[in-house]
């Protein structure tokens, strides 16, 4: 995966309408009309969203007679998940260190006389 592909995927995911379309396609194939139903926008506007998703490789469209179903292509999402995983490990390690530090701060202190020795 190239950085440009990752950028295209993130740009596509930046829009809530496109994320909702992907969520619907995760349930199975759908036509443009079916995808447009929950939105208060024109079919050409939905088609523009679909072109962005298709350009990023997140969906594909096939042709069966006059029916053009859209389907989710999860490969780019897997690539994003792999990219984010690196940073998740970083944050997990940071939170583990912070938890250890907080435990150290909350540990009961010994008798002040014990600390003199």
Explain the overall architecture.
The structure is a single chain. Strands 1-2 form a two-stranded antiparallel ribbon. The radius of gyration is 24 Å and the shape is elongated. Strand 1 and strand 2 form a beta hairpin. Helix 1 (3-13) packs across helix 5. The protein has 2 domains: 3-74, Arc Repressor Mutant, subunit A (Orthogonal Bundle), CATH 1.10.10; 76-107. The protein is built from 5 helices and 2 strands, in the order ααααββα. The chain has helices spanning 3-13, 16-25, 32-36, 43-55, 75-106, and strands spanning 59-61, 70-72. By secondary structure, it is mostly helical.
Question: What is this structure, in a nutshell?
Answer:
With 117 residues, the chain is mostly helical. It contains five helices and two strands, in the order H-H-H-H-E-E-H.
Secondary structure blueprint with pairings:
Blueprint: H1 3-13, H2 16-25, H3 32-36, H4 43-55, E1 59-61, E2 70-72, H5 75-106
Antiparallel strand pairs: 1-2
Largest sheet, in brief, is: 2 strands, antiparallel
Number of domains: 2
Q: CATH fold name of the largest domain, please?
A: Arc Repressor Mutant, subunit A
Structural Rg:
24 Å
Query: How many helical stretches?
Result: 5
SSE topology string: HHHHEEH
Question: What CATH architecture of the largest domain would you give?
Answer: Orthogonal Bundle
What general outline do the C-alpha atoms trace? elongated
Unreliable stretches: none
The chain-level mean pLDDT equals 88
CATH superfamily of the largest domain: Winged helix-like DNA-binding domain superfamily/Winged helix DNA-binding domain
Distance between the terminal alpha carbons, to the nearest Å? Answer: 61 Å
The level-1 CATH class of the largest domain: Mainly Alpha
Beta-strand fraction estimate: 5-15%
The residue fraction in helices comes out at: 55-70%
């Amino acid at each position: 995966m190239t950085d440009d592909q990752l950028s295209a995927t993130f740009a596509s995911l930046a829009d809530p309408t496109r994320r909702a379309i992907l969520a619907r396609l995760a349930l199975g194939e759908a036509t443009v009309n079916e995808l447009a139903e929950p939105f208060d926008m024109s079919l050409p506007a939905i088609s523009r969203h679909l072109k962005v998703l298709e350009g990023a490789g997140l969906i594909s469209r096939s042709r069966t007679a006059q029916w053009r179903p859209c389907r989710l292509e999860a490969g780019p999402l897997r690539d994003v998940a792999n990219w984010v995983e690196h940073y998740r490990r970083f944050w997990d390690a940071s939170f583990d260190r912070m938890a250890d530090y907080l435990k150290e701060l909350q540990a009961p202190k010994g008798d002040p006389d014990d600390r003199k020795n």
